């Protein structure tokens, strides 16, 4: 397996993959270097491991791939022939089917970012060659497996494949979101990404309806309130600090100056979102209280992680939240592209 991650969080992803595989009695080990922005997990049966560790369950992975080949010493005058030869070698019993698309990428690391130009130009040359050789469909087909060519250097690339149903739909696992001119803060991008990444498309119509009611704890200056308002919700924004005046002009936002850790609603709400800077276990406990007491049905919140033992803290906080909520929940958590030293959690009743 080959998984992308945020640069600097390779140890956390390696620890997550290792622990999850061990709990499933699947032998293997993680291999990585700090700041290379990906982790390899090598095992005796990578296909079985990949099936046992679905992408939706992984927290620190931006993308999940099955590595096919590691090509070093590529000749810049002909990188295509070794790639096609490597595909034949990966399937000695014959090609299973043509790929539906090919993405030429590079890890999201400082060292690899200068390869962006090469990736773009090489992709244009590789596509017709793969189609001629029968490895790529004539028209992009999102239902078929996708081929990835990942450049680590001009003469070094890895080949991998992804299942469209078991991975990120964005190159490098990064959704391309733009900061809206009306957004009160850049934190709005975190919640927008969470809605795209953690809430499945078929769930959104049911979970977001006009005039549903939500609370935003620690709302100022109002980035998350703004996102929820744009989903059609009416929002109670809880913060002792000021909100952007335009939010109040909308008629959909009520600002209460109160402590987000102390305030509770007078009646049940549809949603509660929270992006407060606080110890992660304290946040997890408070979020569990909201679910357990029926103050909200659905929630999205951030857990700010410590500098050390971040995977251990993540696991402990999620276990604490699930245990203290005392209700069967669907829980999805991920370190989003717009997160930093934190993860984002979505929880909804099963």
Automatic annotation (TrEMBL):
<feature type="binding site">
    <location>
        <position position="239"/>
    </location>
    <ligand>
        <name>S-adenosyl-L-methionine</name>
    </ligand>
</feature>
<dbReference type="InterPro" id="IPR029063">
    <property type="entry name" value="SAM-dependent_MTases_sf"/>
</dbReference>
<comment type="subunit">
    <text>Monomer.</text>
</comment>
<keyword id="KW-0963">Cytoplasm</keyword>
<keyword id="KW-0949">S-adenosyl-L-methionine</keyword>
<feature type="active site" description="Proton acceptor">
    <location>
        <position position="304"/>
    </location>
</feature>
<dbReference type="Pfam" id="PF18125">
    <property type="entry name" value="RlmM_FDX"/>
</dbReference>
<feature type="domain" description="RlmM ferredoxin-like">
    <location>
        <begin position="1"/>
        <end position="65"/>
    </location>
</feature>
<dbReference type="InterPro" id="IPR002877">
    <property type="entry name" value="RNA_MeTrfase_FtsJ_dom"/>
</dbReference>
<feature type="domain" description="Ribosomal RNA large subunit methyltransferase M THUMP-like">
    <location>
        <begin position="78"/>
        <end position="160"/>
    </location>
</feature>
<feature type="binding site">
    <location>
        <begin position="220"/>
        <end position="223"/>
    </location>
    <ligand>
        <name>S-adenosyl-L-methionine</name>
    </ligand>
</feature>
<comment type="similarity">
    <text>Belongs to the class I-like SAM-binding methyltransferase superfamily. RNA methyltransferase RlmE family. RlmM subfamily.</text>
</comment>
<feature type="binding site">
    <location>
        <position position="275"/>
    </location>
    <ligand>
        <name>S-adenosyl-L-methionine</name>
    </ligand>
</feature>
<feature type="binding site">
    <location>
        <position position="187"/>
    </location>
    <ligand>
        <name>S-adenosyl-L-methionine</name>
    </ligand>
</feature>
<keyword id="KW-0698">rRNA processing</keyword>
<dbReference type="Pfam" id="PF01728">
    <property type="entry name" value="FtsJ"/>
</dbReference>
<dbReference type="GO" id="GO:0032259">
    <property type="term" value="P:methylation"/>
</dbReference>
<dbReference type="GO" id="GO:0008168">
    <property type="term" value="F:methyltransferase activity"/>
</dbReference>
<protein>
    <recommendedName>
        <fullName>Ribosomal RNA large subunit methyltransferase M</fullName>
        <ecNumber>2.1.1.186</ecNumber>
    </recommendedName>
</protein>
<keyword id="KW-0489">Methyltransferase</keyword>
<dbReference type="InterPro" id="IPR011224">
    <property type="entry name" value="rRNA_MeTrfase_M"/>
</dbReference>
<dbReference type="InterPro" id="IPR040739">
    <property type="entry name" value="RlmM_FDX"/>
</dbReference>
<dbReference type="Pfam" id="PF21239">
    <property type="entry name" value="RLMM_N"/>
</dbReference>
<comment type="function">
    <text>Catalyzes the 2'-O-methylation at nucleotide C2498 in 23S rRNA.</text>
</comment>
<feature type="domain" description="Ribosomal RNA methyltransferase FtsJ">
    <location>
        <begin position="185"/>
        <end position="278"/>
    </location>
</feature>
<dbReference type="InterPro" id="IPR048646">
    <property type="entry name" value="RlmM_THUMP-like"/>
</dbReference>
<feature type="binding site">
    <location>
        <position position="259"/>
    </location>
    <ligand>
        <name>S-adenosyl-L-methionine</name>
    </ligand>
</feature>
<keyword id="KW-0808">Transferase</keyword>
